[in-house]
Amino acid sequence: MRVEEKKIKVKRVSSMKKSAVGIITFHCCDNYGAMLQAYGLKMYLRRQGIWADLVPYEPFFMVGRNWLIPYAPVGSVYESLKYSCWGLWSHLKMGRDFIRMKTNMKCFREKYLVERKRRKLRRPGRMSKLEYQYYIVGSDQIWNPDITFGLRKAYFGGFKNSHKKKVIAYAASLGGSSLSPKYENDFSKLLSYIDGISVREREASVYVERCCGKKPAVVLDPVFLLSKESWSGLEVFPESVNYILVYQTEENEEMMAYVRTLSEETGLQVIELRCSYRSGEKAFSVDYTAGPAEFLGYIHNAEYIITNSFHAVAFSIIYEKRFAAFLHSNRGTRIRNILELCDLSDRLYQAGAPLEIDRDIMWKNVKKNLKAEIKYAEDFLRKNLDGMKGRYGT
Questions:
Q1: How many helices (H) and strands (E) does the chain have?
Q2: Same domain, 66 and 131
Q3: Rounded Cα–Cα distance for residues 20 and 16 (Å)
Q4: Euclidean distance between CA atoms 295 and 242, whole angstroms
Q5: Would you say residue 313 lies in a domain?
Q6: So what's the pLDDT on residue 19?
Q7: Which helix (DSSP H) or strand (DSSP E) does residue 66 occupy?
Q8: CB count in 10 Å sphere of residue 254
Q9: Among candidate residues 258, 244, 253, the one with its CA nearest the CA of residue 353
């Protein structure tokens, strides 16, 4: 049993195995946010006395993009080959750092998410033999067809299983406020598999309600369900100190210009985290090797954080850091939402407006705002998992 599991003193009771909760999400992606949100939900439930596991559903269309020669059914054969060639070029340019990154991602996944010995499920049909009675789908963009290459039944709990009693969507995301009209019919049908629905973005709740006739709850990303102290136990610290941390989920020249200015004003070095190769500022140090544990260490140790990543913003809040947020061109809603909720909209970059990154943040007020939202999320889970608590426990 791992150290984290020993701390919460949870033991599996074999006679109650069929009562466990299976979580279906994007844990198999080599992505900081995807893996950390999966850990957050799993460990929160275990601390409530509910034995939760991540279902090892790892289809090729998700894991293939992590390969040395990436695979993804992006469109025509030509487009898929083009994607693979670009990915191979990027990975080769990263050199040994690509292997180090893969190692760090794999170590975190096998240590904290899904044990190496567990058999991977590549197709939804394999889920028919699982013994969970409750399933949680989410969080993450499990309902974004651009990521899953069409809507996938597995991420709606739409598979045959004689033990399955209930499917709950926790903080599920479409990637935006709605889907393309071509998906609406299928989306409405797939939502019928879900018994309790919650979404991550407030703007998407109206669309989901229209499609299924039920008003979804709007809940926090599961990383907020664990404390700063809980996350600190996973960290791997970098050797560097006194730095500005930069993490981009898409290139943003305005953001990089801001970083250059901040570096000149403070005299601090800049470290940028990247998961794929691209040319950039020669004056910046680049780390291609970080996994989720290293990502947390970099966040915790940074003097400033500049990012357009939701999860980098989320952990900047959890760790009470000085930070500036920039919006992703088409996935900026959740960053705006969390900043508004925490009364931190002044941390969002607006063209032509000054961004005073050194202005003091009233963290007590931020925590107060988060506390109410955390309780709402916990109440949603408690209500929908009624009867599960105590099935596994001390």
A1: 14, 11
A2: yes
A3: 7
A4: 16
A5: yes
A6: 52
A7: none
A8: 11
A9: 258
The enclosing domain of 261 has a CATH number of: 3.40.50.2000
Query: Which of 25, 49, 51, 112 minimizes the C-alpha distance to 291?
Result: 112
Q: Where are the beta strands (DSSP E) in the chain?
A: 21-24, 52-54, 134-137, 166-172, 196-199, 217-218, 243-247, 269-273, 285-287, 304-307, 322-325
Measured distance CA(157)–CA(227) in Å, rounded: 29
Polymer length of the chain: 394
Q: Which two tokens stand for residue 218?
A: 């709007």
pLDDT of residue 5: 47
Cα 239 off chain centre by: 26
Retrieve residue 248's tokens.
């981009």
Query: Domain span at residue 122?
Result: 17-227+374-384
How does residue 13 score in pLDDT terms, banded at 50, 70 and 90?
Answer: very low
Q: Does a structural domain hold residue 209?
A: yes
The answer to whether residues 301 and 236 touch, using CB atoms and an 8 Å cutoff, is no
**Residue for token pair 């889970």:** 381
Distance CA(275)–CA(267), nearest Å, equals 26
Output the pLDDT for position 198.
97
DSSP lists the bridge partners of residue 136 as 23, 168
Strand partners, 141: none
| Residues whose CB falls within 8 Å of the CB of residue 253, separated by 6 or more in sequence, listed in order | none
